[in-house]
Please model this.
Amino acid sequence: MLIVGTGFGGIGTAIELKRAGFHQVTLLERAHEPGGVWRENTYPGAACDIPSPLYSFSFEPNPFWPKRYAMQPDIHAYLKRVISKYGIEPHIRYGREVTSATFDHGRWRVETAQGETFEADVFVPAVGQMSRPALPAIPGRESFAGAAFHSAEWDHDIPLAGKRIAVIGTGASAIQFVPEIRKTAAHVTVFQRTAPYIMAKHDGRYATWQKLLFQRLPATQLFGRARIFLLAEYATYAMTRHPLLAKGFELRTAQLRRRHLKDRKLRHRVKPHYPLGCKRILFTNDYLPALAEPNVSVESDRIDEITPRGVRTADGVEHEADVLIYGTGFKATEFLGPIKVLGREGRSLAETWRGGARAYLGMAIPGFPNLFCVYGPNTNLGAGSIIYMIERQARYVRQAVEQLARPGVSSLEVRQEVEERYDREVQTRLGHSVWSACTSWYRQADGRVSTNWPGLVTEYDRRTRVLDPADYLLRAQGRA
Model:
């Protein structure tokens, strides 16, 4: 088995396979240490917006989380401890960037930028949806004379103290780093295209007695995990099936704006004008207070161009800056990124996905035998922990490998009609959901939602619990 990526998806799948007795597992990682997004995103204030008891593997709870919402270094350290505990390190090949994967004579041949070739019976891309930073197509972007970088590629060698900083974007990363950089910056100008919905982050450090309680009575931490899980399911239900319930969340966001922003013009400027949940809801206690500080300003006029000296908006004003930071998210709908994947009879995955990425249960693709995506199309969440979804996918992949381990079975390929029926159902449901109500990173340019799961995670758990061989074409060795 060959897995690409060492984030939660790749590591979780490797552990599931090893625990089932499949030890011939190799993980290819382009970087020189594991961690996925929690390795890459080192910007100031980087943290998770899902409480730690739920944002962790169910089989490996961590009683020693420092905070309810863990920071990036703590999550990265947790993942490395899991790798060590479950013996995954010897299976990882670092510094291997996968460039292509070809299904040939019943096996996958995977090539890297370093000139190496790996072969495997099963190919599992676990590169996630947040692995490739997205830069906006703004005229003059390359002309800026100062330092410029994306938040996912933070340049810690660039001093920010005393500088005029322009921040483009108001997504999940920006709302975390803006309050941090404004503490020492001369001025921070936040360029906002659309205002996000902001919810309070009920955070806090765990006391020593709480950590000891979690360690000695694990059920107490499990109770907290269950409570968070149920709240996330309720939020998903409100956004996907009962919009009136979402009004309660919307009122709470309005209360936060009134509490922290006394300037009515500023409060109006950062008020969202789309249904709650259509774009990602953001959790923070610091962002709104930061916007009220005298060295922070919010510009909501459209950006016309980036100039050598700063950013020019549609009103003709040039906002001068020394440093430009892009908080513009990721290419979430470009699954597998630049990897060239060729399936049975040379079928191109890029061509297959020309109208948008799609896969049965987010994992299996017709024409691509023995390939299973982890955190693939339509498996992202509007609320809840993606690690819950990853564990269900790992369980399903393990069952696929068990099918392939049966005598006489060499390939497993989802039936075309099964995937098409599934995709029609998912897209129909998403078409009636809040995620189709506005433009966001959840959607492609043509309106197709290729990222999100349309229901509760408990439904996904049920539908992936048992792999049904009738959904697949099982081929014997030597058959086309």
